[in-house]
Amino acid sequence: MDDLLLEFLTETNEHLETVDVEMVRFEQDPNNEAILSNIFRLVHTIKGTCGFLGLPRLEALAHAAETLMGKFRDGMPVTTPAVSLILVTLDRIKEILGELERQGAEPEGSDNDLIEQLERMASQEPSVIEAAPQPESPQTSGQLVYQVLERELRPGEVSLDELERAFQEAPGPEKASTSGSLTYQVLERPLKPGEVSLDELERAFREAPGPAPIVIEKPAAPPAKAEATPPQAAKKNAETSDSSEGGEGIAGKVQTIRVNVDTLEHLMTMVSELVLTRNQLLEIARRSSEDHGYKVPLQRLSQVTAELQDGVMKTRMQPIGNAWQKLPRVVRDLSNELSKKIELVMQGADTELDRQVLEVIKDPLTHMVRNSADHGIEGPAERKAAGKPEKGTIRLNAYHEGGSITIEIADDGKGLNFAAIRKKAVERGIAGDAEVERMSDAQVAKFIFHPGFSTAAKVTSVSGRGVGMDVVKTNIELIGGTVDIRSEQGRGTTFTIKIPLTLAIVAALIVASKDQRFAIPQVAVSELVRVSPSSEHSIERINGTPILRLRDRLLPIVPLSKVMGLSGDEDANHGFVVVTQVAHQRFGILVDGVFHTEEIVVKPMSSKLRHIQLFSGNTILGDGAVVLIIDPNGLARMVGSGADTNEFQTDAGLEQTVASVEELTSLLVFRGGGESLKAVPLSLVTRLEEIDASTIEWSSGRPVVQYRGRLMPLVSCDEELAIKRQGMQSLLVFSDGEVSMGLAVAEIVDIVEDKLDVELLAERSDLVGSAVVRGRTTEIVNIAHYLPMVLETWSRKDRRNGPDRSLLLVDSSTFFRDMLVPVLKASGYRVQTASTAQEAVRLLSNGLQVDVVVTDLELTGHSGFALVASLRADPHHSATPVIGMTVKPDPQQIALARKLRISEIVSKIDRRGLLSALAELNASLEEAA
Amino acid sequence: MKPIDPITSAVTKGASKQMEFVTVTVAGQLLGLPISRVHDVFVVSEMTTVPLAPGEIAGLLNLRGRVVTAVSLRRRLGLGDSGATERRMAVGLENHGEAYGLLVDEVGEVLKLDPDEMQPNPVHMDRGWVGLSQGVHQLQDKLLIVLDVDAVLAFETEREAA
Known about the structure:
The complex is a heterodimer. By secondary structure, chain A is an alpha+beta fold. By secondary structure, chain B is mainly β. Chain B has one domain: CATH 2.40.50.180. In chain B, strand 6 (88-95) and strand 7 (98-104) form a beta hairpin. Chain B is globular and about 40 Å long.
């Protein structure tokens, strides 16, 4: 394309952008001569250039617009329809310019429609104005323009409105020359009784007989001399403020030069290459031990490169105001369309960020602002009723924080309707009724980021289609940013976006999968866990899905090699798990090896490979190898669709509020013989295993398997279920120190968190009872039933403590008693049990001698503390060591325990804690003995 | 002095009409690429394979600090891979601002050919090749297929690794 044309296009587009913004400002401040002159000048320039380049359509449009603007300059009233018409014209011009850029020539077509309207408006005919979004009547509910007085009316003065009326009624010369600015100003206060709106005035004026003067004269005419001074003074005030404003109004010219974007890109690429080469040199220098004197210069080179890198990065930085430029117009148009009064406040427009990042967030920002205008800000009547100012405010605020930029979009509207969101979530099946009730408002707010979620009752052209917020969130997260939302019903909503300052250079963790290296962005890595079958962290399977138990939380595992199709090895259990958090999902990526972190220059993927979700780009490492960069988002998407692991992908926050220890127990649900479901508290289960049945040895008819270097007896969980001789056998492993037992099950179904509410007590000793777990009747297995079977036959525990120790276990829960007794027995105690404090006291006063009392502190009836208190009061037992058990120790309990000389408090479900507390006691008892 | 063209026997009428082609060999077949499209020729040493990539993409290469997408001409023509793993040759091309390396068996010399002498694709030419060929040149003892570089690099990426 012609250089001249290119130059023209760039320049004209810039001018149009400026005119756009200035028009909106002008509409709000029609007095401002400076703005008007600026606009006029720009439009005039555009017209001139178009004429010069032989672009007739553009020239005609610009000319018509310029004529109208000229009328404004001459004092014609600036009405909303007029401004809208000009804005529409600007849009048309932009369209034509776009076509011009694409085709190299003006597109065919006629703009007579607009030109006629513009001419008509300029000649002030009272015909219907057809600017599209505007209603016919000049009495719009949008922006009525009044006159503004910069100060209070002094006594004897009249309002400008009254002046107008007086003037209009008085006979007088038709056309006085008017000078300077316009008569339409903004009234800061509501109409006083007896006043009329200027629009009404206009209409009356036009209907009045006599030749219609083109302009309303400035009231400098003699009959109103005295009254003229206040408005003149007012005008003067307006003028002076104008000129001072004018100075700011026209953009202050900062020293700049225009540089082609391609040149900058090239510069950036070269600097990136420099960085990589520098890394390579540093790598070599690191490895070599001899110093030929180049190390010092190399350091210097490294420093210079880093500074050069910083400097070039800065050239990519643009003020965020550039993304905000279009917004005043958007808000203005929306205010009119929705008949609301909205003000847009922009703070921190000069905060800088990378060009690329700017591109990405431009649309999300617009979307959120539109949302605020559409759903957030209420109509003026509603606001007034709520005691808020009629004009709603949308505030944009941007600032730097650490290595990122924070952008806030806040409105003082009506806030999120949490009830509607809850309802919608249930309707959409995103969450259950009970769940949404439990969630806090903050958590409910996050639902709006769900795809397809929109609580707008109807879809407007502005928003409500429910495709917005999830796309916004995804786009922002794609570049490593976060979106958050805070809202208070009736007060307003605030979105907070945090994005990294630049995308070009990123810290990454280098990992290997099947001998190929990949890079994972450091921001995505929460932690690294080494896994192997023999270590504490080992990958287990539920329903075939690999899972890692990490600090009592379940992490779905994604084997990278499998996702990439590099291997079909299903049972990988060696390597490292990179724990990553994507949106609200935590999962782990299984890799074979982990190397180090490196700062890498992100290069975009080839267009032929961009469709692969798994990779977000590639880079060249210090040693010259090309390495692909993994996109955790993309990985999650690839795996998430179809995978049925939704049980585990809960919102972290949700998990915390929902899983409070008192209420819910983690239960492992499995199938025994037949169709019945069984469950056992997860905390009792040591491991889940799936073993090859052919490795099971049968010794005197009892199944045994070699497990971790020891023999582990197997028991079937159900008499109907036979332990397999072939194929894979699922096992629940229970261990107690060195002794383990494998419970054979038909199928491991699930892990759920639910209230353990045993409703029906079982008659059989192998079951505790039945409970409703996640809506299904499930038999709760009594592990205690199985352990003795196993322990008595296979016990290897030598009684280290010579004399038998006796112990009194006091606990109201049969379940827990039954669970603990075998454990305690296996540790070498003779165990006596009591279910209530009274029973315990009775036993003790009847002569029962025990070495230790282990009691639940929260017994039914008299509390454990009461029991201990009575113990201490009894001379026989005042010195007996007591170990207290509780669900959740709190400071009060601990204090009380100390007072009563309770040796230790352990958690009820912490068997190991209990045993070690006992062991300690033993040691001290032995010493004492 | 007239340029001595070892291949075409006809005296060139108007040297400006001749076009230069870089010749390459793939599975014994000689192909020519317009020299204007060829940026360089290089030996491929290290290549990074890209999992889940379309079959034609052999991987990614580092060429003087630039990441180049390696496209296997063999696979593009529907042929299997050659057994050779060492010393692969590649022709550097550019398309829409991106760098590609076309992997070939061998790189030959540069030939000057008269475009008027180019004949349309023979009727029995493999259908998969027809789209990639602009035409053929009858050389002394063999046929040279003129490659359409844009066509070679314009393969579908929409299908996920099937």
